[in-house]
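Morning - S-adenosylmethionine inputs below, output right after.
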Amino acid sequence: MLFYLFFGVTILFLLFLLSMVWPPDSPWAPWWRTSKKTARAMCKLADVKKEDIVYDLGSGEGTALLIAAKEFGATGFGVEIDPVRFLFSKFILKINGLSNKVKIKRGNLFKQDISKASVIFVYLVPKTLDRLLPKFKKELKKGTRIISYRYEMNLPLKEYNKENQIRLYII
Ligand SMILES: C[S@@+](CC[C@H](N)C(=O)[O-])C[C@H]1O[C@@H](n2cnc3c(N)ncnc32)[C@H](O)[C@@H]1O
């Protein structure tokens, strides 16, 4: 009995260690997330207003959308593949009274229609960002602002906030 307990705890501990070095957009990497401070900077860089519809592709715990809705008045939509983070973000939005203003869907961001977005947030690895480019070009309206945290996109750069590692692109 004690052996199984020890075995289980060891496996969990190893998974915890691995999750820290896993690619940041993997559902197995829970420790890569946007802080509230960065989310604020993202909203400011994108000039988010209450008329905006902000999509977070791979919305994680929903922090960026929470800030966009609560402090900037925007409507939010997140898509998240990981069931744990999906449920957690819904819970956080509910206790903040934002369930009507921010919707989170569990699913694959590549299958999500993003044509209604006026602002897009992404915190995804370069390989995924490259794969997303044709979708952005096909579905997004002219003038849609894209904020990428940490990683560069293969689009003309509009503005770079070095302190927060966020880049603004405009379609
Ligand atoms: C680096 S985290 C960023 C989370 C959140 N956007 C933030 O800034 O805090 C990337 C998120 O993308 C999610 N993800 C990865 N691939 C996805 C996919 N194909 N569809 C939907 N979500 C995905 C992961 O589960 C993870 O929550």
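Note: Residues 24-25, 27, 32-34, 56, 58-61, 63-64, 79-82, 85, 108-110, 123-124 surround S-adenosylmethionine (CB under 6 Å).

O.
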